[in-house]
Predict the 3D structure of the following.
Amino acid sequence: MFHFTAPPPLSLYVHIPWCVRKCPYCDFNSHELCGAIPEQAYVDALIADLEQDLPRVWGRTVETVFIGGGTPSLFSPAAISRLLSELRARLPLKPAAEITLEANPGTVDQERFRGFREAGINRLSIGIQSFERSLLQRIGRIHDDREALGAVRAAQQAGFDNINLDLMFSLPGQTLDQALEDLHTALDLRPAHISWYELTIEPNTWFHRHPPERPSDELSWNMHEQGRRTLAAGGYTRYEVSAYSRGQNLCRHNLNYWRFGDYLGIGAGAHAKITDAGQQSVTRITKTRHPRAYLEQAADRCRIASENRLDANDVTLEFALNALRLDHGFSVEEFCAATGLPFSATAKPVNAALEQGLLQNNNGNIGTTARGQRYLNEVLQYWLTDTQAHARTGKP
């Protein structure tokens, strides 16, 4: 079924699941602190987890590392330093590998940032969300506007020049002017990268159970469009639905996801996707979700909550879910290399979306039109429908 001549690029995701307080919109595997964080025990567990996974990736080089959460900046620089040292001892990291740490204002200062940099972190992703104090309160953030600005400046003063700022729009009670003011404040700080994305209400969150009053769809779209133009005027190029870079400072780790690359995942609830060119297989793996159970099971087979081999229909759908988020889309060659499948495996949904004006073919590069970008879920329905048809007939 698959024909891989070589596996795709490999990344490593490390999940640290603790937060000071769970945000009401958050559906990630994060847990509020109850006492001290078991730093050393958790780093031990991460390394034990990784050692169980090493046979899956023998001989492969890791190109990016992303330490996410939760709030990884709650861990001490010493713990992060030990973690990275142990990773390097077990995995070959590409020279100048991108190593990202997520950080939240209110949990960091200049000294802490300096410690992270000395530990080997070379990229920060700071969860600002907004620079407006009242909006931060409405979405349950633990920091205020002063701490948000202070965190970015402290990171810069500590020597970080590759910084991403996470900003959200369509927040409860947010006006268009407030959304654009957030962007202007961010632009004044000149980070390398800005993530500008719409608040969505996810199942199993406080906001899902107690929906806040939010801007209308029309106002949210105006925020998106005017925000996109504001970022472009400020020198930031959009390369993915919600990702904007200054110069060539694209997030290499996320690009690997969007290009359907491989990644190991260690930590409570972490996910992995591994291609085995020898076995001609693609496997998805999920680790035990709850931190306590993960700490107990990290050295054992039972740390794996699920392990599933993907079939051709799974792969074509997942490739589309990721690649169509990119502004440039994908080429035939990129599809074949990433999936190990002939382009005919995805030709039917591609052609249907092309006919409806949701996709466009620019010199062999297939991407969304302006309408397709706005209605991306409608575009993806062509792949979902195709997958469901295959499931009914049993045909590949």
